[in-house]
Please model this.
Amino acid sequence: MIWGVLQFPGSCDERDALNACQIADPTSESRLVWHEETDLSGIDGIVVPGGFSYGDYLRAGAIAQFSPAMTAVAEFAAAGGPVLGICNGFQVLCESGLLPGALLTNESTRFICRQGDLVVAEADSPFLAAFEPGQTISIPFKHQSGRFFAPPDLLEQIEANNQVAFRYAKGQNPNGSLNDIAGVTNETGNVLGLMPHPEHAVEPFGGSMDGVGIFRGPALAGAGA
Amino acid sequence: MSDQSPHRELGLTDHEFELICQKMGREPNGVELAMFSLLWSEHCAYKHSRKLLKNLPTEGPRVVMGPGENAGAVDIGNGFSIAFKVESHNHPSAVEPFQGAATGVGGILRDVIALGARPIAILDSLRFGEPDTERTHYLVDGVVRGIGHYGNSMGIPTVGGEIYFEPPYEQNPLVNAMCVGLARTDEMVRAAAAGAGNKVVLFGSLTGRDGIGGASVLASAELDEGDDAKRPTVQIGDPFEESKLLECCQELLAEDLLVSLQDLGAAGLTSSAGEMASAGGTGIDIDVGLVPLREPDMEPFEIMVSESQERMLAVVEPGKVDQVLAFCTKWQTASAVIGEVTDSGTFRILKHGETVGEIRVEDLVDGCPLYDLDPEEPAEWTYVNRETIEADAAPSDIALSLLASPSIASKRWAFDQYDSIVGSRTVHRAGAADAAVLNIPESNRAIAIAIDGNGRRVACDPFQGTVEATLECAANLAVVGAEPLGVTNCLNFGNPEKPGVAWQLSRAVEGLAAACTALEAPVVGGNVSLYNETPQGPIYPTPVVGMVGELPDPANVAGENWRAGDAIALIGPFDPSLAGSELEKQRGQLGKGLPDVEIAPVKAAIELVREAVRSGAVRTATDVSDGGIATALAELAIGSEIGCETDLHPVLARRSDNPEDALFGEGPGGFILAGEKAELEKLGGQGVDFELIGEVNGNEVIVTAGESRVEILVEEAAAAFDSLEDRIESDQAGLTH
Model:
């Protein structure tokens, strides 16, 4: 499976995401996609990586939605292609309207970086193909604006549609996210955004290797575009 | 001359001003005087320390770049080098902690970027006053947020560091940042201008009025009342600009488009262009009319001394200029050709083609007089003592008090605010081990990084204290299996024109030289920060030592939690004493002097521990540091949530019969290892002191020394160890930035 990892000015985790794509599928020729590129032909899946796209000026993820590459990603997603937004990428996907809700400043107002447990929720998404609902996985998180928020009726709809992909394990919600939500999908499940960083849980040293499953998911589900 | 003389206001002495006139054959004009005042400042010219620093060992088989470059670098094999340097941003952080710390990180990153390396790690060494005042809360909050803001936004992991809280830093905190970068050795560039006719390209942020005079006014004089008025001399950081600058530089170097590269730091264009010309033995013309400005009506002198952040200067062959500017456009960073390399030996400042200043490069960069120090050992202990523990406290209470001591207690609340994992190299995160460990698959190995400098012990004995700081770094590397490759340092001291401070500085540099020579760890770069004092007096003399080492296999770094049933061994020529210790501080009994230390047996212990860890035979390894053996054992128990039962009679037999020395005494050369008993026993009989002192089990930390006994619950110990966060919580949390 060939992944395209977007690179904006200010991206931080794009090389890490590319590394994770290659670990998940060592034979693929995944590559970085410059923010001005619009031709995604030959790419089977998109990662919108973590970092501080365009300096996160105005609001985290607010400017990146207008980049040429994101226009192409919106079309790619509409055609059913798998799109994974991590941290800043999650913020960009919410700002773009590809995912519901918004990410607000952490309750503590501080940046926080820790290894944490996530519980896999019921969402029907190719990114969850490697996991069972209810399974606990260990993935680090690091962010200052990761508090998931949606107005009550939208939140109810997200829950009713089973669009929650991951929740912080009981007692581990680091930022005040509603319903302990760490990641959500779009209604069709092919777009996933999450605040924790699966690309930082793929090496034998460090915290865990549970992140690999997320990158293997779409291939397992046969969901390449 | 009146006090209003322009040169005095700019920090030059009358003698220095006369020397400038002599060298120029005339009085300097305003632009020239501004440039001299910066490059002849302590911060740029090292005029009180350069003679001392000549005595440091700087050569070794692995050294790729030594002192004098933007950063030092050592070879780690397979065509790669590790570049690293530590630098201070103390006075800006005292005046405006968030921006001061942020731009401190930004500045040290640019030093490493300028070498052609990609930064892969940041460490910080911070010093504050005791955490019970509003000022300390404000400074800690701002500094920690500032470091996180810059490093996190740049995508460079902050992997380690240390924070000490001592009264002499109350008004004058220390913020030392260390950056470690990875470079292909053949792509590294030196900051030397070459080739008359080559173009000088300035790229990065626009040049504004921020930070004017920072190096001379803030960094080279004591802090005093009314320093709030100096806030305009603190620069404002923009990590987004620096992130683009980093990627742009990496692409320019990969395409081989640059002759040389230099960052703009203290003294801005004056220092970077001047030092490039000096290093290359050339002249340089800069036309301030070509510099992209943030404000339209800046004076030539303002443009030449502006310390606006996130700017780089490159020398480029004329035929490659268009390509260079195109990469800058790709990364949305401003760029312009602002001058040319000449063979005149002169630094000429023009404005739209008209000369507005002209100085011989040699006079500007190397003309500053170097001063001999006038050292004199103070007869008495000159720092305040404060009693915070009852004289007859029982050993268990002492142990809990030490664990709760701000300098010893857990700093996780700070480390958690830093991204420690971006870059996918972090094997040991900040605080997870004595040294940070980063994977370098490019060279089929890993590196370890430690930073250390206990100012209190250096105050007791500047020579021994500095030897200890250096040995502590080597010990921190050993417990993850790493061998030293090179050293960087930041010498934070008071006013060197005072004999007592001059003595501290001289003795500390002698100690650094002695320890680095013995460890065969060359000093490849560093920084000096003097005048760290306020009307309340000088800081503790604080040489911060940063050490980089290598290890063959990131899978064998010990550092795992110990397990029930593990044997515990004490290794090394550890001869603990309460002199200069945390306990002596709490008792308000600090005084001059530390016991002498023989380096050779400590080095032998370091080597034995290193090999044991590398072999994979050891589960847990740590060196005995602040708070002594009882504290070290308690910290291991807290991390593993399992207690231990130990008896220190071998230490008592070796030294005095004072149980407190054994339990809480400090000094170099002690290691605690845990693992399978049979494996540990193999470390005996190898010429290094070795004793089994107990076993891992239970829910209590039990340490017996003769008639004295520490016996505390692991959870009690953990509560004490984690108590600092609540104490440090800023009165303004959430309100600043």
The domain at 65-187+415-552 of chain B is CATH 3.30.1330.10 (60s Ribosomal Protein L30; Chain: A;). The longest strand of chain B covers residues 118-128. The CA atoms of residues 122 and 158 of chain B lie 4 Å apart. Residues 134-154 of chain B form the longest helix (21 residues).
